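Notes to self after the Tuesday call (sharing in case useful).
The group wants a holo model before anyone commits to mutagenesis around the pocket. I volunteered. Ligand is adenosine-5'-diphosphate. Logging inputs and output together so the record is complete.
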Amino acid sequence: HDLRNEDLKDLHELGQGNGGSVKKVEHLPTGTIMAKKIVLIDAKPSVRKQILRELQIMHDCHSDYIISFYGAFISDPNICICMEYMDKGSLDGIYKKIGPIDIDVVGKVALAVLEGLTYLYDVHRIIHRDIKPSNILFNSRGQIKICDFGVSGELINSIADTFVGTSTYMSPERIQGAQYTVKSDVWSLGISLIELALGRFPFAESSSDDSDLSDFEGTLSPSRPHPALSLTKEQKDKKKKRKSKGVSLQGGGMTMSILELLQHIVNEPAPRLTPEGRFPKEADDFVDSCLLKDPDARKTPKDLLKHSWIERSRTATIDLEAWASTF
Ligand code: ADP
Ligand code: MG
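Result:
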């Protein structure tokens, strides 16, 4: 039962990311609805075949917290990856639609991601490498699953060659060129959880009239559609004072380059769940431990499964199916 492109009927586009797009499709012979990811790979046929071979590991990934895999094939010049369709989409889309996500739901997200990461690493020695809200998917059965993990070394290399997108969930040690470990995924999880709980990317400036958010002064916010970042007035002043380190500003000084965000992640204190007291102390503590800047001090996903907030989230009786039906 090999998947063939001819058997897939395009329904509509689900979204676009770096170097590819995802479509909702129907597998006509079986009537199965799938998500088909189309990745443009600018590589030799031999490399493409190698990628396809490496992707087959996904057939052996079976976990409630990992998107199921139906198969992959080459459709020149693309590689198509067919996976389980999640009808409520990714968590970035959800918070952009409904606003900040309730902290108890965020706790269930943290639990699911840690379970998924632990499964991938313990069973397959796979490190995810791309944890972010758009790679955490949700469905109307109330399930939370992760997708787009780095199973294929060749695919990672091929995409890295053309990679220009946001690296904003990247840990300080990765930015500084250290080897990728499961702990880098933990950092990305911490950033993602803050984003979901606050309803905005954590390296975000306050809007000018939001005096209660003044702790965000001096931090950054992404400006769409480019991975460029706006500066608050304070930052611009600071920046003038310390004189630009050769990083050019775009658009008359209103935006800064991705390079500056990366410098910020490395040099400034990590973001936190703020303001103090808005969220349970255990949640604050969990996020803080994900965002320890020293990877040696940061725990692994497996260890973090024992954190008190995660244990509490595990036993929490929130009806995610009911929650899903509200949007
Ligand atoms: P990114 O993850 O960077 O947004 P992708 O190309 O991986 O880029 O995915 C684009 C969008 O497609 C995602 O943001 C997500 O909303 C949607 N998507 C991806 N996979 C699925 C899936 N299996 N089911 C439903 N929606 C999906
Ligand atoms: Mg993705």
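Two things stood out.
The longest helix spans residues 103-124.
The chain has twelve helices and ten strands.
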